[in-house]
Write a structure and sequence with these properties.
Elements lengths: L1 H28 L54 H12 L2 E8 L2 E7 L5 E7 L6
Antiparallel strand pairs: 1-2, 2-3
Length: about 130
């Protein structure tokens, strides 16, 4: 036990004291002042010109009129054929149940249906409206 105390006294205590001194110096000598928040209401509220630059900002590009990305909820990925709603209607008339999801697939749509028995099944409807 005596050796541990002497080790602490010789080695660790001076290092710890130096660290405490540095931290105390940093904490108490540096005064950071936060910027005051502008009031939202009242006579000193920010006006339109105080709110900053308006669009378009430098480097900002407005989206083009035609977006080339495909949406999961539209039929832009299909060349031609029936739409998602029509595919859902055809599949529901064919098998019954509740339509859970319709997704575009290779040449038509894949319809996910909850059957009255509680099972979930998939029906493929091609672009011509035929069940596959």
């Amino acid at each position: 036990m005596g050796q541990l105390r002497s080790f602490y006294a010789r080695c660790l205590r001076p290092v710890l004291m130096a660290m405490v001194a540095v931290l105390a110096t940093l904490c108490f000598t540096t005064k950071s002042q936060a910027l005051p928040k502008p009031p939202l209401f009242g006579p000193n509220a920010a006006t339109e010109k105080d709110k900053g630059p308006s669009f378009p900002r430098p480097g900002f590009q407005a989206p083009s009129k035609k977006d080339s990305r495909k949406s999961l909820h539209s039929d832009t990925g299909l060349k031609r054929g029936i739409g998602s709603r029509e595919a859902a209607k055809i599949a529901k008339e064919y098998i019954g149940g509740k339509v859970l999801k319709v997704r575009p697939s290779g040449d038509g749509h894949r319809v996910k249906i909850l059957l009255p028995s509680g099972k979930v099944t998939y029906i493929n409807v091609n672009a011509d409206g035929k069940i596959q």
